[in-house]
């Protein structure tokens, strides 16, 4: 057992320096009045329990006070206070630990070192069984019966049962209050569920509306496709009109006699060659005349005459050719006129090429025209179907209302989940209440057995029998 071996007091109230050695048994401090006996008890409580507070106990004229105790196990505890410092020192062998900033509390290490604690009788009363004040009567004899009952109950551990009963009563009250709140919440949820029973019928309606919306969306997609095909058809119509205008222009070419044109071109080519030959022949005749005029040799005249005869024949031929030349010249003039009229032959060739492309396109357009008829039929059917949706705005409003109802349904489902969770918690609380009730019953029976064993009233200390025990239990 640990006990206080000695105490040293410095500058504490009337003590400038005092040292007292204690025995391991009961120690009593005696002496004349006003000689510092109570100050020794206060100094002892100050170092053990940090009481009293403040600095008024510092001896007048001193700047500090210090109280030291030495325990039987060699541990030394020092309590020191100045105007600016407030500390504990714990010395164990050669180790010294200083504690500051603990306020009104006591460092836990100090309490663990001396192991002297106050006993709590109730929430307002604490007593120290190790130290008695001056003029204090024997333990419990001068105290009222209620105080004695509490002290004895604390000694035998009845305060634990009292605290448990109080705690159980608080839990029961809390559980009952929570039970009432949960019941009110359940009633509200039941009422809300009844008010929203029609929501279950909305599920089928929502599915139907979703199907209807999907059909409408499909028809709108079909309508967009039909509009696209209609625009494509209009473009095809414009191309057809343009190609038909080209065909109309090409029909004028059929009036031209292509065979006659070839003959005239052939005659024009031959006439050009003859004209060139005639020019060469005229030049040769002129050269021969010059030769004749300059020739004086008769021997050569005969030769020249023969040559001239030949030339004459040629001249006659030339005359014939000249006539033909005139005819050819006329033909050439006519051919020039034809050439003027047919100067766009290259353009015609280009038109023929384009015409072949047009014919190819026309063949493709024929297939598209059949598709066009199918699209027109689909458009007509789509228009007939869209007439059924002329109240689309009203349907849209209904869809908005359905979405709102759907959100309400989601909220109801959430409330249902909360309801299930609350119901589960309620069952858990109810089971907890049953367990607490069983615990109360068990503790009551145990308390009853304890009272039977001690046969003493915990309140007044008088003897009790089983009848009084039952009355005590009823009053709890």
From TrEMBL:
GO terms for molecular function: ATP hydrolysis activity. Residues 165-199 form a coiled coil. Keywords: Coiled coil. Belongs to the SMC family. SbcC subfamily. It comes from Thermobrachium celere DSM 8682. SUPFAM superfamilies: P-loop containing nucleoside triphosphate hydrolases (SSF52540), Rad50 coiled-coil Zn hook (SSF75712). Residues 6-240 form the Rad50/SbcC-type AAA domain. InterPro entries: P-loop_NTPase, Rad50/SbcC_AAA. One of its GO terms (biological process) is double-strand break repair. This is Nuclease SbcCD subunit C. Heterodimer of SbcC and SbcD. The keyword Ribosomal protein does not apply.
């Amino acid at each position: 057992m640990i006990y206080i071996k000695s105490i040293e007091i410095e500058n504490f109230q009337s003590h400038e320096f005092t040292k007292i050695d204690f025995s391991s048994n009961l120690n009593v401090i005696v002496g004349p009045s006003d000689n510092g006996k109570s100050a020794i008890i206060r100094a002892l409580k100050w170092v053990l329990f940090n009481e009293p507070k403040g600095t008024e106990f510092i001896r007048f004229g001193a700047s500090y006070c210090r109280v030291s105790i030495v325990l039987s196990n060699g541990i030394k505890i020092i309590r020191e206070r100045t105007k600016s410092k407030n500390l504990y020192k714990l010395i164990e062998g050669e180790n010294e630990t200083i504690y500051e900033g603990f306020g009104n509390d006591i460092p836990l290490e100090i309490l663990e070192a001396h192991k002297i604690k106050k006993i709590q009788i109730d929430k307002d009363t604490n007593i120290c069984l190790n130290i008695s004040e001056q003029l204090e009567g024997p333990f419990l004899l001068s105290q009222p019966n209620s105080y004695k009952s509490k002290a004895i109950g604390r000694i035998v551990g009845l305060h634990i049962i009292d605290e448990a009963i109080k705690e159980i009563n608080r839990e029961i009250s809390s559980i009952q209050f929570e039970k009432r709140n949960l019941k009110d919440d359940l009633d509200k949820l039941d009422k809300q569920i009844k008010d929203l029973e029609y929501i279950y019928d909305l599920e089928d309606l929502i599915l139907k509306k979703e199907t209807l919306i999907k059909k409408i969306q499909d028809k709108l997609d079909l309508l967009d496709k039909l509009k696209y095909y209609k625009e494509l058809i209009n473009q095809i119509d414009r191309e057809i009109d343009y190609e038909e205008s080209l065909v109309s222009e090409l029909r004028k070419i059929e009036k031209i006699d292509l065979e006659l044109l070839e003959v005239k071109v052939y005659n024009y080519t031959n006439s050009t060659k003859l004209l060139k030959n005639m020019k060469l022949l005229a030049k040769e005749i002129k050269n021969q005349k010059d030769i004749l005029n300059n020739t004086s040799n008769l021997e050569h005249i005969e030769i020249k005459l023969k040559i001239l005869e030949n030339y004459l024949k040629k001249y006659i031929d030339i005359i014939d050719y000249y006539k033909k030349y005139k005819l050819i010249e006329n033909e050439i003039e006519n051919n020039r006129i034809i050439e003027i009229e047919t100067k766009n032959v290259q353009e015609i060739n280009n038109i023929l090429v384009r015409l072949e492309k047009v014919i190819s396109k026309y063949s493709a357009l024929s297939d598209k025209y059949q598709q066009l008829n199918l699209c027109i039929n689909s458009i007509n059917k789509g228009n007939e179907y869209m007439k059924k949706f002329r109240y689309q705005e009203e349907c849209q409003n209904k869809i908005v209302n359905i979405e709102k109802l759907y959100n309400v349904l989601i909220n109801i489902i959430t409330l249902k989940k909360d309801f299930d969770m609350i119901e589960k918690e309620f069952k858990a609380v109810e089971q907890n209440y049953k367990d607490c009730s069983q615990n109360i019953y068990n503790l009551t029976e145990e308390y009853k057995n304890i009272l039977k064993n001690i046969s003493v009233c915990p309140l007044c200390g008088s003897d009790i029998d089983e009848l009084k025990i039952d009355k005590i239990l009823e009053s709890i």
